[in-house]
Write a structure and sequence with these properties.
Layout: H1 2-18, E1 28-32, E2 37-39, E3 45-50, E4 60-65, E5 77-78, E6 84-88, E7 95-104, E8 111-120, H2 140-166, H3 173-198, H4 204-225, E9 237-239, E10 242-244, H5 254-272, H6 275-278, H7 282-310, H8 318-353, H9 359-362, H10 364-395, H11 401-427, E11 439-445, E12 448-454, E13 462-470, E14 473-474, E15 480-487, E16 495-503, E17 506-511, E18 518-527, E19 534-542, E20 556-558, E21 561-568, E22 578-585, E23 597-602, E24 610-611, E25 613-614, H12 616-619, E26 623-628, E27 634-642, E28 646-654
Parallel strand pairs: 2-8
Antiparallel strand pairs: 1-3, 3-6, 4-7, 5-6, 7-8, 9-10, 11-12, 12-13, 13-14, 13-17, 15-16, 15-18, 16-17, 18-19, 20-21, 21-22, 22-26, 23-24, 23-27, 25-26, 27-28
Helix pairs in contact: 1-10, 1-11, 2-3, 2-5, 2-7, 2-11, 3-4, 4-5, 5-7, 7-8, 7-11, 8-10, 10-11
The structure holds protoporphyrin IX containing FE and copper (II) ion (CU).
Length: 656
């Protein structure tokens, strides 16, 4: 037992230490200006949207120029967007800027950091600092606060449930009071520890929840030390409008009901500050609440059975043994239902939080979960033994109390370790995180974990990020990371981009190989020194130009050809350079090469005609490109001619 505890402690401790590399809790989802944006004019403010509601008090947005000088007005506040923050800017000159953000979740108080860059004018885009989005590992105080809270909730709720519904008579009242007071004290201490861990950045919402939890703990402790209310009267439980009398619950004890209500309230505060709530999913919240309730009924119930029944009673006579056996049987049935519920709810939650089954050993969160699952199996085995061996013996009038005491003590020990694992688990960021990328998929190939992120879902210029991990560690210094693009629907040839390492294990490539909307295959090739290339294929749907949210420009018909036209940037701005791409497709669906394209412009000002250059090496076959120095704001008609085979007109909106 002790050896097991040491092993588990080491594993969980290691998971916590390594969690700096884990993904975040409140993640960057989008911003204005966007990440890597090129602007014509300085923005007046920066807005960032996160995957969870942030709390401005513990959050920060710093806007730094390339010399590290700060240009924001230090007035971070809610932006009015869902989950958004904003900061105002002083007037800033052209140049590159880094936006470094810190976000504290208003729900669970977890903090995450990250950064992105943008540029004003024609200068180069600055390199973002080499730190991937990260959450600092949880503090020991947080884990401690969670352990105390969860242990208190399980003990309080489980004991109240046990004495009300499993063994209303025949429990030792002094021991019952003791357990409830211990539970109350644990809950209060846990809440205080969690408030202390947050310190001055404590988000108000979290503060209220922890205050409610502490109050419920005080009620639990108080109700169990008040002189026993000797009020017992027949109970009529009102269910669904009908009145039904539940035989064994023939006594109604307000004290126990108050304890149950306090336990339920404390359990509810757990769900209301959980990741399920932070993610804003009602289904997830319901699963979490069922999980907390069933976990408490089982684990707290075992402790109540041990302390208030098994240790308090005797089984010397066959009659005593039979009475004890009846209680044990009732608890076994309760525990079976509770474990079925807790495993179902836990497993369903786990499926939502994990990306791959490999997460169970390759992410700190997954390791904490795996520890939990393994220990639950051990506890279940002990429970099954009680159910199938000692229980029946008692019911047959044979002594078995000592064996049951020993087994339930072992179970209690395992539960304590499980609660530590659950505390580590909930303090860490789950592997499955809402992503800022339009495409985010993870594959496991030859021992490597490859996560492909494609920033925009639209055709045209894009950023492709490949995260490479082996086990828990990022794979740095790969000799080569290449991405090869081919299209499924048409033969567009193959294009290769070579990615460079931007942060540890994070390889980035930019370009516009996925020029046409449809289905693309991205073959990733990772070359590590002295190893065979690791290669896999991601299938990426590419939407209309400008992203899935913008309405696609309808394809132009030009003589016998179809042209798909888009610009870089997708939303052109007055005075800034614009690249206009035209992808020419023949009646057979394949790109058409070697044509002469000519563009004439009519719009708010005059603009001379342009000829396209077809650069197959850089842009792929059938892709023609016009470089426009800049246009005035307004709506332009661009007439494209293919030789003298035909013309088509494209409408181009340039914003101020
Ligand atoms: C005796 C057994 C168990 C105990 C005492 C236990 C305890 C807990 C507690 C206290 C929480 C936190 C709930 C909250 O803060 O709202 C939790 C969450 C969770 N548990 Fe369990 N659990 C047990 C078994 C399991 C099992 C068997 C699984 C998986 C099959 C599981 C999966 C999860 C998951 C995925 C979460 C959500 C974590 C998050 O918020 O990111 N648990 N558990
Ligand atoms: Cu969190």
């Amino acid at each position: 037992m002790r050896r097991l505890a040491v092993i588990v402690a080491c594993v969980l401790g290691g998971a916590v230490l390594l969690s700096g590399a884990a993904e975040a809790h409140a993640n960057y989802v989008r911003s204005n200006p966007a990440s890597d944006a090129r602007l014509v004019k300085a923005p007046a403010e920066i807005r960032i949207e996160f995957s969870e509601p942030p709390d401005p008090k513990g959050s920060d947005i710093q806007v730094l120029d390339t010399n590290g000088v700060r240009h924001d007005k230090r007035d971070v506040g809610l932006s009015g967007d869902p989950n958004g923050l904003r900061v105002s800017l002083n007037p800033i000159p052209d140049g590159g800027y880094v936006v470094a953000w810190t976000a504290t979740s208003a729900v669970d108080g977890h903090t995450t950091r990250g950064n992105f860059v943008f540029v004003i004018g024609n200068g180069p885009i600055p390199r973002p600092p080499d730190v991937a989005e990260a959450a600092p590992p949880p503090a020991l105080l947080e884990i401690g606060g969670r352990v105390l809270s969860y242990a208190g909730i399980a003990l309080g709720l489980g004991t109240a449930f046990f004495v009300l519904f499993v063994a209303p008579a025949g429990v030792d009242p002094r021991r019952e009071s003791w357990l409830l007071s211990i539970a109350g004290v644990l809950i209060v201490a846990g809440s205080v520890a969690l408030v202390a861990d947050q310190g001055p950045k404590l988000p108000p919402r979290l503060g209220i929840m922890l205050a409610v939890r502490a109050f419920a703990g005080l009620v639990l402790a108080a109700v169990s030390i008040t002189p026993r209310l000797a009020m017992t009267r027949p109970v009529a439980a009102i269910a669904g409008g009908g009145v039904m009398t539940i035989g064994p619950l023939a006594t109604f004890r307000p004290r126990r009901m108050i304890a149950l209500a306090a336990g339920l309230t404390a359990a509810m505060t757990a769900t209301l500050v959980s990741h399920a709530t932070a993610l804003g999913s009602l289904k997830s919240m319901a699963l979490d609440f069922v999980h907390v309730l069933s976990v408490s009924v089982w684990t707290g119930g075992v402790v109540a059975l041990l302390s208030c029944v098994l240790l308090a009673r005797r089984d010397e006579t066959a009659e005593d043994a039979r009475v004890l056996g009846a209680t044990v049987w009732r608890f076994s049935v309760t525990a079976m239902i509770a474990t079925a519920l807790l495993i179902t709810a836990g497993a369903l939650q786990a499926f939502d939080r994990l990306v791959l089954i490999n997460d169970l050993y390759e992410t700190p969160y997954g390791i904490a979960l795996a520890v939990k699952i393994a220990l639950v199996l051990v506890a279940l085995a002990i429970g099954a033994f009680n159910l199938l061996r000692w229980g029946p013996r008692l019911r047959a009038g044979i002594r078995a109390r000592t064996a049951l005491v020993r087994d339930t003590m072992a179970e209690t020990g395992i539960f304590i370790v499980i609660i530590v694992a659950a505390s580590v688990l909930t303090a860490l960021a789950p592997p499955a995180q809402p992503s800022a990328s339009a495409f985010d998929q993870t594959q496991h190939v030859s021992g490597l974990r490859l996560e492909m992120l494609v920033a925009s879902g639209g055709a045209g210029p894009n950023t492709y990020v490949l995260r490479v991990h082996q086990g828990l560690a990022p794979v740095t210094g790969a000799e080569k990371v290449a991405l090869r693009f081919t299209m499924v629907e048409h033969d567009m040839g193959q294009q290769e981009l070579v990615a460079t390492e931007r942060a540890a294990g994070e390889y980035v490539a930019q370009g516009s190989p996925t020029a046409m909307y449809g289905t693309w295959k991205i073959q990733t090739i990772v070359r590590l020194a002295g190893k065979e290339d690791v290669s896999t294929i991601f299938t990426v749907p590419v939407g209309a130009p400008g992203g899935p949210s913008s309405t696609p420009a309808p394809p132009l018909t030009i003589g016998p050809y179809t042209a798909i036209v888009f610009t870089d940037p997708a939303a052109p701005q007055a005075g800034a350079p614009i690249t206009l791409f035209a992808l020419l497709v023949g009646t057979d669906g394949n790109p058409v090469i070697g044509k002469k394209l000519h563009a004439t412009f009519s719009g708010p000002a005059s603009q001379g005609p342009l000829d396209a250059s077809e650069d197959r090496a850089a842009f792929g076959p059938g892709r023609y490109r016009f470089d426009i120095a800049g246009l005035e704001a307004g709506t332009w008609k661009v007439t494209l001619a293919v030789g003298n085979e035909g013309t088509g007109t494209y409408s181009l909106v340039v914003s101020r």
